[in-house]
Amino acid sequence: MSIAIIINPVAGGIPPGQARARAELASAVVASCGERADVFVTERRGHARELAQAAVLGGARCVLAWGGDGTLNEVTCALAFQPVPLGIIPAGSGNGLARELGVDFRPERAIAEALRASPRAIDLGEVNGRLFANVAGVGIDAFIAEEFDRRGSNRRGFSGYVAVAAKALFTYRPRHYAIATPAGRFESRAILVTIANSAQFGNGARIAPDARVDDGRLDLVVVEERARWRTVCSLPRLFNGTLAGMQGCSIRQIERTTIESNQPMVFHVDGEPVDGGTRLEVRVHPAALQVAVR
User: Fold this and answer.
1) Using N-to-C axis directions, what is the helix angle for 107-116 and 19-32, rounded to 10°?
2) For residue range 22-67, what is the model confidence (pLDDT) as tens digits?
3) How many helices (DSSP H) and strands (DSSP E) are in the chain?
4) Element of type H or E holding 62
5) Is residue 168 left, alpha or beta, with left meaning phi > 0 and alpha meaning psi from -120 to 50?
6) Whole-number pLDDT of residue 120
7) Are 42 and 6 in contact (CB under 8 A)?
8) Residue 179: CB partners within 8 Å, gap ≥ 6?
9) CA angle 196, 198, 237 (to 5 degrees)
10) Angle of the 140-150 helix axis to the 158-171 helix axis, nearest 10
11) CA nearest 268: which of 201, 205, 218?
């Protein structure tokens, strides 16, 4: 049985020519561990999912995704509800799931640790049929994801994300949502409605400080905006774990919810924007993904 390694050649905004160096490093590390690697480089959106599906059918014992949260999402969709585990080599703009799972950011260490790890199960979330491993949502984060996606691969990377986010803070306007959970229905004029499987967006920004990837629940985070200056002044709360104390913020643990708006919504799954309708159906899938992490 082999190890499949799927590389996004432009993850993190690096020059495409570095894909060969990544492939050579991956093969060498796997060989040093006494195993054989089949290394693939993605060529387009959706290709990582196709490659991961083929790897499962070909008998791979583990599939490693070298890229950011979007690459992980594609591979996750192929490995969901399967016994083949996901390994992570973080190389994106946020790397939220990798950070939450404690993955080493040195590629050679991440690969070696994934090969030695005993796989563990984590939950997955679903929004209108689209799976996610880290976070999903509507509002300003989906708006930022959509704007970031439009920039193209040559203008991505962390600095590009920061530029898009900074602009959004001054241009995005809250929308009205009706949200229903088993505990009841409420309405909110929110700047952000996030469904979190893990605690953070990425880069240490903890949107749901108490979320756990293996508790069988999702954290529904709703941030109402009272004034833009208050929102901006509250940003440090994302990084010190005190977001729940922000005025207008509520966090609920859920297994299902629906989100409605009077206009079609753009939502995101693990940072990838998706055009949705006026109603979003959300649910959790407990223990749906095996991950190879230490």
Assistant:
1) 40
2) 999 999 999 999 999 999 999 999 999 999 999 999 999 999 999 9
3) 9, 17
4) strand 62-67
5) alpha
6) 97
7) yes
8) 185, 186, 187, 188, 193, 220, 222, 257, 258, 259, 260
9) 75
10) 130
11) 201
**Residue 153 scores a pLDDT above 60:** no
The two tokens of residue 103 are 């993955």
Does residue 78 register a pLDDT over 60? yes
Extract the tokens encoding 62. Answer: 């583990």
Mean pLDDT within 258-277: 95
Q: Once rounded to an integer, what is the mean pLDDT over residues 187-197?
A: 95
| Alpha carbons 224 and 75: distance in angstroms, whole number | 33
Query: Do 52 and 63 touch, CB atoms closer than 8 A?
Result: yes
End-to-end CA distance of the chain: 21
d(CA 141, CA 97): 16
Pairing state between β 175-181 and 256-260: antiparallel
Dihedral of CA 260/141/241/104: which sign?
positive
Would you give the distance in Å from CA 272 to the centre of its chain? 8
Residue type, 223: V
The full DSSP string for 164-188 is: HHHHHHHH---EEEEEEETTEEEEE
Distances (CA, A) of 27 to 23, 40, 151, 187, 274: 6, 11, 32, 52, 34
Beta-bridge mates of residue 253: 219
pTM, two decimal places: 0.91
Proportion of the chain above pLDDT 70, given as a percent:
95
